[in-house]
DNA sequence: AAGCTTCCCCGTAGACTCCC
DNA sequence: GGGAGTCTACGGGGAAGCTT
């Protein structure tokens, strides 16, 4: 196995905690703050962690976690964690410049993988080590993408995050018909502002990117399904076949049928 | 007959500018 | 920086014709 998860889970502290000891071991730690807040002492500095703050510590790196009471005298801090080791993690950790701490957009895709790792680890005796191995790699790569997006230019941070969230919205909704208004609403911006941000971030318009995603889905279905081209057009988010045909011709220079005849392994 | 292609027209997206 | 308004290009869909 290329990786090994030693501990994983969700922890919640609802009482103040001021430990003296420093936490650290021979393994890697991934910790994502999901609820409330706490204070972390790391590299001689004390910083507050809020939801979305990710810690990535290498073997031998130590930290101290403090959960304090708020103004109302209540404490609350929730986080997901994974403690792991392995050759793959070693290679991944040494690749690029990974910060010890980053604020990420902790959306469903990150938490879904994290929860799945926790769940699979509870399934004792199911010989699922390989599955956990790949889930951990998926988690690391998803987190890496998240903090790359978060670090995409400090001054453009908020705009960059909005652009990436729109991109993800398009990818998730590409097979449905949606309007630019809806994409803009998903990041609480006006349509004109959203369109401008997206173009600045990715160099193409929202509609053109949506068409590109839809065409890539259509290509797969043309090659590996027995659906008619009209069915494929509708299932890929193109409102009508004629529109799909025109987009396809414009992009590839051949008609969908010609493309399918040349490319399909089941033709 | 079913599936595919093309034409045409209306509505909307995107670029641009102005204003707050 | 961000919203509102305007104008233009093109996206989107209906319908008719063509091909297999």
List its salient traits.
single chain; DNA-binding; 267 residues; five-stranded antiparallel β-sheet; 10 helices; Arc Repressor Mutant, subunit A; Jelly Rolls; 48% helix; alpha+beta
Describe what you observe in this structure:
The chain is an alpha+beta fold and 267 residues long. The protein folds into 3 domains: 4-150, Regulatory protein AraC (Jelly Rolls, Sandwich); 157-203; 208-263, Homeodomain-like (Arc Repressor Mutant, subunit A). Helices cover 48% and strands 18% of the residues. The protein has helices at residues 87-94, 108-122, 129-150, 157-173, 180-186, 191-202, 206-224, 229-235, 241-252, 256-263, and strands at 4-13, 28-36, 38-42, 45-49, 53-57, 64-66, 77-85, 101-103. A hairpin with a 2-residue loop joins strand 3 (38-42) and strand 4. The chain binds a DNA duplex (20 and 20 nucleotides) through residues 177, 179-180, 189-193, 195-196, 199, 205-207, 211, 228-230, 238-243, 245-247, 249, 255-257. InterPro entries: AraC-bd, Homeodomain-like_sf, HTH-like, HTH_AraC, Tscrpt_reg_AraC-type_HTH. GO terms for molecular function: DNA-binding transcription factor activity; sequence-specific DNA binding. This is AraC family transcriptional regulator.
């Amino acid at each position: 196995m290329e990786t090994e998860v030693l501990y994983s889970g969700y922890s919640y502290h609802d009482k103040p905690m001021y430990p003296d000891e420093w936490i650290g071991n021979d393994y890697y730690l991934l910790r994502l703050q999901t609820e409330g807040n706490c204070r972390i002492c790391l590299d001689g500095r004390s910083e507050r962690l809020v939801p979305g703050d990710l810690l990535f510590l290498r073997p031998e790196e130590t930290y101290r976690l403090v959960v304090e009471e708020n103004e109302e005298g209540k404490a609350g801090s929730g986080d997901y964690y994974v403690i792991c080791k392995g050759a793959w993690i070693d290679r991944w950790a040494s690749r690029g410049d990974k910060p010890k701490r980053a604020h990420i957009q902790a959306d469903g895709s990150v938490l879904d993988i994290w929860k799945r790792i926790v769940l699979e680890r509870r399934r004792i005796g199911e010989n699922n080590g390989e599955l956990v191995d790949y889930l951990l790699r998926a988690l690391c790569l998803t987190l890496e993408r998240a903090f790359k997006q978060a670090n995409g230019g400090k001054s453009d941070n908020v705009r960059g995050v909005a652009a990436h969230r729109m991109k993800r919205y398009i990818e998730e909704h590409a097979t449905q018909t949606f309007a630019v208004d809806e994409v803009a609403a998903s990041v609480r911006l006006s349509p004109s502002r959203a369109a401008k941000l997206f173009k600045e971030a990715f160099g193409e318009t929202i509609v053109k990117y949506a068409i590109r995603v839809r065409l890539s889905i259509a290509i797969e279905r043309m090659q590996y399904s027995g659906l008619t081209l009209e069915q494929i057009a509708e299932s890929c988010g193109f409102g009508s076949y004629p529109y799909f045909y025109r987009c396809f011709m414009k992009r590839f220079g051949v008609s969908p049928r010609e493309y399918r005849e040349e490319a399909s392994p089941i033709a």
